[in-house]
Amino acid sequence: MEKVLKSLTLDFFGRGKHKTSPHAFFQVQDGFLLDVRSREEAESISIRLEHHANIECKNIPINEVPDRIDEIPKEKTIAVFCPAGVRSSIVYAYLLSKGYSNVRILEGGYAALTEELKPGKVLKILQGQG
Known about the structure:
It holds the Pfam family Rhodanese. It comes from Thermodesulforhabdus norvegica. InterPro entries: GlpE_sulfurtransferase, Rhodanese-like_dom, Rhodanese-like_dom_sf. This is Rhodanese-like domain-containing protein. The protein is α/β, with parallel strands linked by helices. It has one domain: Oxidized Rhodanese, domain 1. Helix content is 42%, strand content 16%. It contains 8 helices and 5 strands, in the order ααβαβαβαβαβαα. It has a 5-stranded parallel β-sheet with strand order 1-5-4-2-3. α6 links the parallel β4 and β5. The longest helix is centred in the C-terminal third of the chain and has 12 residues. The radius of gyration is 15 Å and the shape is globular.
């Protein structure tokens, strides 16, 4: 973890290397959306992305990440999601400390995510234009 913390410089944050927008993330070829909300939150408002064939989505509550880390693929582009970014930031740093290199925080919380999932954008995905 010490190595990870030392790499988090002004240059790193200034260039936004720790985050991705939902729009940019949905463009990746092989993405993994890691939803770190509690089970209860995920059961109340689920995120499945069934029509985004390039994105796998999985809810692993933050407190379960250490025990379920083998469910998080190292070979995919990972975006970590929670509503406010606090839990995402913690899991982001944890994954970096475990050797994950292609991981980002999904910025904007629910508002940014739902903006990217509005009807017109989903229709483009369904029509193969997304």
